[in-house]
Amino acid sequence: MRNLLLKTLKIAAFAYVALLFAAVIFEKSLIFQGKSLPPNFKFQFPGNWAERWYEPAPGVDLHALYFRSDSLSRRGVVLYFHGNRDNLARWGRHAPDFTRSGYDVLMVDYREYGKSSGKISAETDLHADARFVYEQLKKEISEDSLVLYGRSLGSGIATRLASETRPRMLLLETPYFNLPAVAASKFPLLPYAWLSRFTFRSDEWITRVSCPIHLFHGTADGLVPYSHSLRLAAKLGRNPAEILTTIPGGGHKNLAEFPAYQAAVDSCLFAQFRK
Predict the structure, then answer these.
(1) Contact at 8 Å (CB) between 96 and 126?
(2) Hey, what domains does the chain have and what are their CATH numbers?
(3) Model pTM?
(4) d(Cα 238, Cα 200) in Å, to the nearest integer?
């Protein structure tokens, strides 16, 4: 009996170590699930838009789409940081969420996504790229007219950028407290806080953001629990009702289907324009 117990413990220990090893080895591929596009890929979006390129570092070319509002007087520009999957062929369809309110939208594919080149070697690569694009936009429009929008993975990128700059507003859709907290909710026995190379500490950065902040989260989010937005609001010492639009029954990928989400985005953008 004792030998059987020892053997079982050894197998369990080996399995746990193997799981830790796999978590480290496959961390990047689990987080970044972009899809490449051929250089000659033709996007099919309605309206007025154009492709752009940014070179934040040697050997790195970031592909972007710039969507123009039909409004005669542009109210500002939304710099949109998308989620961890696919590329701009998918994310571009969300541009009307902002152009209908009179805002232009710039969406950028991360390294290894879409037509963008370059490798993601560290989390700092993404933050440096975001800052570079932001500084380029400032050459076209005043910083006070720039709105940062981060969805899921992009919420951490947008939050850190907002903590280092002075945009008009920071909008976060399905944001996480930090990535180790997301992993802990799925695999509580793994010490991701110690193992992870990609932590995206929104919980630390958000307290240094000086512009208005608004969050959007669904109560049925199965990937990033709704509680993450509540925790971010708590970090700010704010009543969630003041800065969080709660979408009852909203999941991780479908908030745009809810009229309450669309109305809240419009309200945030119009409110900033009136100030």
Answers:
(1) no
(2) 32-274 (3.40.50.1820)
(3) 0.90
(4) 21
* CB burial string 4-27: b at 16+ within 10 A, e below: eeeeeeeeeeeeeeeebeebeeeb
CA distance 106 to 83: 15
State yes or no: pLDDT of 6 exceeds 60.
no
Q: Tell whether the model's pLDDT for residue 16 goes beyond 50.
A: no
Q: List Cβ neighbours of 215 (8 Å cut-off, separation of 6 or more).
A: 171, 172, 173, 175, 229, 232, 233, 243, 244, 245
Local confidence band at 4 (pLDDT 50, 70, 90 cut-offs)? low
| Six token digits for residue 13 | 């220990």
Q: Which DSSP string corresponds to the chain?
A: -HHHHHHHHHHHHHHHHHHHHHHHHTHHHHH-EE-B--TT------SEEEEEEEEEETTEEEEEEEEEPS-SS--EEEEEE--SEE-HHHHGGGTHHHHTTTEEEEEEPPTTSBT--S---SHHHHHHHHHHHHHHHTTTS-GGGEEEEEETHHHHHHHHHHHHS--SEEEEES--S-HHHHHHHH-TTS-HHHH-S----HHHHGGG--S-EEEEEETT-SSS-THHHHHHHHHTT--HHHHEEEETT--SS-GGGSHHHHHHHHHHHHHHHH-
- Whether 235 contacts 208, CB under 8 Å: no
CA trace torsion 43, 46, 47, 49 (10° rounding): -10
Query: For strand 76-81 and strand 103-108, is the pairing parallel, antiparallel, or unpaired?
Result: parallel
Q: Tens digits of per-residue pLDDT, 31-77?
A: 899 999 999 999 999 989 999 999 999 999 999 999 999 876 778 99
